[in-house]
Amino acid sequence: MKTKFELKKSFTLAIACLLLTSLWAIPSFAQQASNESFLEKMIGTAQAKMVKVFGAGAGRVDSFATGFIVSDDGKILTAQGVILDGKRIRVVMADGTSHEATILKRDRVHQVALLKIQAETPEHFKLSNEPVGEKGDWVVALSNAFKVADKQEPLSATLGVISLRTELEARLNKRDVAYKGELVLIDAIVSNPGAAGGAVLNIDGNVVGMIGKVINSSETNTRLNYAVPNNFLAKFVANKKTDQVVESATEAPALGQADLGIILFKFGGRSNPAYIDRVVRGSPAADANLQTDDMIVSIAGQKIGSVKEYVNMVETLRPEEEILIMVKRGVEIVRARVTPRQKKIN
Amino acid sequence: MNQLYKFRKIAFALAISIGLLTASSFAQDSATPELQTKQDSAIVGNADQSTEFSQQDHFRAMALTSKAFRGATKKILPSLVTIESFGGVGAIQGRIGGIRKQGEGNTTGILVSRDGYILTSTFNFIQQPPVITVITNDGQRRLAKVMGRDDTRKLCLLKIDGVSDLPVPEIMDLDKITVGQWVISLGVGYGDLSPAVSMGIISAKNRIGGRAIQTDANISPANYGGALVDIEGRLLGICVPMNPQSQAIAAGVDWYDSGIGFAVALSGLEKLIERLKKGERIRPAFLGIEAAANPKGDGLLIKKVVEYTAAHEHELEAQDIVLELNGTPVNDMLALRQILNKFEAGLEVEMTVKRNGEKKKDKFKLTLGAPPKPKGEPEQLEPPKIR
To answer: Can you give the pTM of this predicted structure?
Structure first.
C-alpha cells in the first residue's frame, strides 16, 4: 500500500515537473512559434491573474492555498479557512513579488473570502453574473496543489469537464459547517491540499468557479471535486458589506411543530426502513389512509431511507402545509397527500 | 481515504487532436466538410501540414467535443435508472464489517431488457437494504427485486414488474472498443436525477481475467452501476469497483477517481444475464493452495493446502509441484491467478501435478470451489425478511 502510494506520488511529481517546464517554456516558445496553442495562451493569460496565498497552519491543516485577482485595485478571492486566521497573510503574485494582505470579508457558510493587497492589479478576472459553463464543457483548473509552484513559478493546470451543476448535501471535513447552495462538480481532481481558492476556467478563459475546500460528499462518501460557481462569487465580491459576512441560507426552522400521527416500528438499529407500526386514529396519516406495515419511501420529495431520516424529516415539516408521502404497501408504491397538524404539547 | 490524484488531463495536445476526431464523428450532420478534410490531412500529414490548423479550429474542435459529450449523455439517459435503498446494516466508524461505508445517496443502474431487468453493481448493496426501489427515467418509482449476482464481475440483476417497452441501450461490441477512444462515465450518485459526467479514454482492455475494460474517466461510488459510453452514447460497459489482487466486494473502491477505473464490458454478457435472471450466484474460483515458485525447476511448489477447498478435496498435498493449469505452464502465483481469474467456481480445470520428486506426473481434472467468506463481509444480498 505504502509503496503504491509513493509510486503515485512520485509519478505526480514527475508529471508536475514536466508541466512546469512546459509552462516555463511559454515565453520563448511564444516568440518562436506564431501559432501558440490557444489553451497555452489562455492559461498563460490566466496565470498572471493567479496568486499563491500563505498564512497560518495548524496541525495537519496546510498553511498554503491559491487565490485569484478579481479587481484592478488588488482584491483577491480565496477559500475561507484556518490559513486566514493567523497574524499575517502573504500573497505571492505571478511575478514572484510578495504582498501582505488584509481580509475584506469572508463567508463562513460558503467558505469563501475576499482579500485585499495594496497594489494595482490591472491583470484580473472579470466575474460574470450569469453561470458560466454547462455539463460537458471543458474546464482548466489552476491551483497550487501540494505547493508545487514556488515564487514566480506558474500554477499547475489540470483539464477536465463539468460533471454536474447541483445542490448537494456535503459536509466539510473536521466537523465544519455544511456548504449551502449550488456547486459545479468537475472531473479534474482538485480536492487536494493547497488547491482551494484556485480558479476553474472554461476554454475561453472565463471563470466558471473557485475551487473550494476539501469536502466529503455524504451521498457517495467520497471527496468532491468542485467549484463554487462564478455567479455566487460575483455576488459575494459586489456585496457592499465590508465586515465579515456570515450568511445563513436556511429559512426559519420549523422546530418540530408538525405531527403526522405515525408511530414507526422500532427495531433497535438505526438503519431500519421507516415501517409504520401504528397510525393514530383521527390523525393526518389516518385521514390519508396510511396503514400499518406501510413503509415510508419519501416525504415531500425527500427519500426516507431509515427511521432516523424519517425523524429528521418530520422535524422540518410545518403544520397545515400539505405534503406528498410515498409509501410501499406490499409490492405497490402508494401516494398519499397528508396535511400535518400542529403538534399537541403535553 | 487517501484521495488519489491524477494529472492525466494535462495532455492538452492530445485532447485537441482527439477532439478533432470526435468532432468529425459526432458532427457528421453539423460540422463543415472543410473541417473533415483538414482533420484528415492532420492525421496523415507531418508537422508542416498540421499547421494548417488554426488555433480557432482547435478551439472549435474542443467545443464540439463538449457538444458530443452532451449528445452522448442525452442518448444513454433514458436507459439509466436511479436506485434507492432503504434500511440495512449500520456502519461503525464509517465502515461496515471492515468495508468502506457506502454513501447515503442513490445509486445507478442500467436497463438491460424491455421488461424491467436492471444491471447494477453489488457494491450498491453492501449495506444489505431490505427494500430497494428503482426510479426509471420517466420519473416512475417501483419496487425492485434482487435476482442473481456475479461476484466475479461485481454485478447484480434487479427486476421491476409491471413494465414493458422500456428503453434498452445500444451495446457496443467488445471487438470494436479501442484503447484510446473517448469514453464518458455517468452516474446519479451525486443526488441529482441528471447524471454527473466524467470523460476519459479507454486505458486497456482485457483486465481482471478478461472481464473488465479499464478507463481513466472518474469511476467512483457516484457511478458504480452506471454507464460507460462512447462519444455517441453507445454502451460499452457498466462501472464497477475492481482490483486485480482481490475479489472482495468492495475491493477497488479505494481507487475511486484515481484514473484507474474499471467497467464490465456488456458485449457478450447475454448468457450471463440469463443465468442471473434465474437467481444464480456466480462466485470467483478458488483453488486452495499456498504455493511459491519451485526453487528447483519449473512449476509451483505447494506449501500448504487449505482445508475444505478444491485442492483439499482432490487430495493435493504439500510438496506437490503444480506444472500446468489448463495446459498453460504456471511458474509463479501471478500466472496461476491470471488463469484462475478467467474461471468461476464450479467450473472444471485440468491440472498437471508432479508428486514425489521426479517420479510421477499426474494429469487430472478438478472442480474449482468458491473462496471462503472473508471475515466480516456481508454474505447475503437478498433482503432479509423483516415482515
So the answer is: 0.82
User: Do A271 and B90 count as a contact with CB atoms less than 8 A apart?
Assistant: yes
A122, A73 in Cβ contact below 8 A? no
Tell me, what CATH number does A278's domain have? 2.30.42.10
Residue B41: domain span: 8-75
Same domain, A315 and A182: no
* Chain A residue closest in CA terms to B90: A271
How many interchain CB pairs under 8 A, A with B? Answer: 194
Q: Report which DSSP code applies to A44.
A: H
Can you tell me the distance from the alpha carbon of B122 to that of B103, in angstroms, rounded to the nearest whole number?
A: 14
Q: Is there a domain that residue B123 lies in? A: no
In degrees rounded to 5, what are phi and psi of residue A107? -120, 105
B9 with A164: Cβ contact below 8 A: no
Residue A12 within any structural domain of the chain: yes
Specify the CATH number for the domain of residue A168. Answer: 2.40.10.120
Nearest to A221 among B16, B89, B221 (CB): B221
- Kindly state whether residues A306 and A325 are assigned to the same domain: yes
pLDDT tens sequence for chain B (387 residues): 444 444 444 444 444 444 444 444 444 444 333 444 444 444 444 444 555 678 888 899 999 999 999 999 999 999 999 999 998 876 666 666 556 667 778 999 999 999 999 999 999 998 888 899 999 999 999 999 999 999 999 999 999 999 999 999 999 999 999 999 999 999 998 876 789 999 999 999 999 888 999 999 999 999 999 999 999 999 999 999 998 887 777 888 889 999 999 999 999 899 999 999 999 999 988 899 999 998 888 899 999 998 888 898 888 889 999 999 988 999 988 888 888 888 999 999 999 998 876 666 777 888 888 887 655 555 554 444 443
Residues A207 and A301 in one domain: no
Q: A282 CA to chain B: closest CA distance, Å?
A: 26
Residues within 8 A of A (CB atoms), B 361-380 only: none
Q: Which residues contact B303 (CB under 8 A, 6 or more apart)?
A: B289, B290, B291, B292, B318
User: In terms of C-beta density within 10 A (0-12 exposed, 13-18 middle, 19 or more buried), how is residue A293 classed?
Assistant: middle
